[in-house]
Amino acid sequence: MGSSRLPNKVMREVLGKPLLAYLIERLRASQLLNRVIVATTTKEEDDPIEALAKQLGIPYSRGSEDDVLDRYHQAAREHGLQHVVRVTSDCPLLDPEILDEVVERYLQLFPDIDYVSNTLLLTYPDGLDVEVFSISFLNRLHRLADKKYQREHVTTYMVENKHLFRCENVANKENLSHHRWTVDYEEDFQLVRKIIEGLYPNKRLFLMEDVISFLTRHPEIAGLNCRIPRNEGFIRSLESQGMSQEEKEKIIRKVLQRSS
User: Fold this and answer.
1) DSSP code of 61?
2) pLDDT tens per residue across span 191-230
3) Where are the alpha helices (DSSP H) in the chain?
4) Which of 24, 137, 151, 242 has the fewest CB atoms in 10 Å of its CB?
5) The domain 9-256 is classified under which CATH number: 3.90.550.10, 3.90.1150.180, 3.30.420.40, 3.90.226.10?
6) Is residue 85 classed as helix, strand or coil in its secondary structure?
């Protein structure tokens, strides 16, 4: 709820329903998830998130605002998880079929894999990100990540040190990474609002292909947030930590330059 760029973003409503409720509905459509858990903060301003989780019958956990890695670790331990699928709450258009594809790949490779995602090589729209990993992987991250930005952005340590982990990427046939369907700014919200209003009444569980088709028919909507760079929040996080320009550029090259 305390987003500096778009306050209360996950509880903003479209068609009378908060964005977080759309995400939960889409996660519940997965064929491979057996539980959805909301991991929010202990801050009073996030009480509405807990209230929504209770209303929807979703288990929840509350932890640190800034140490998001610790929040994930705490939630996984509280709920006795052996495997974790990580999605972020500002991605209400998440495609459950893409999620299941990533999870299925993980299950095919486990236990000879630590981590599978569709983000190591960026080919999907921003907002369809899925990461799957074991509790042992999460325990290692929690122990090894010692920089603030690595704690705030949960799997950054792994991306910087892929040689230490067994990782796999699921790529889309076509590079669609220029699309931005995550919600960080007002322009993002307006784009997502128009997509939901245009598709949800006739097809509640619309998929990535439906959104692409809709935006092709409505290029004026597709252009609403086209000037916002992907991972802009990560870059702002680095800028707030007092590191040198050389350090910042080195991290950006290592972590963000992953498009095909």
Assistant:
1) E
2) 999 999 999 999 999 999 999 999 999 999 999 998 887 6
3) 19-28, 47-56, 68-78, 96-109, 135-144, 148-152, 156-160, 186-199, 208-217, 219-222, 232-239, 245-256
4) 242
5) 3.90.550.10
6) strand
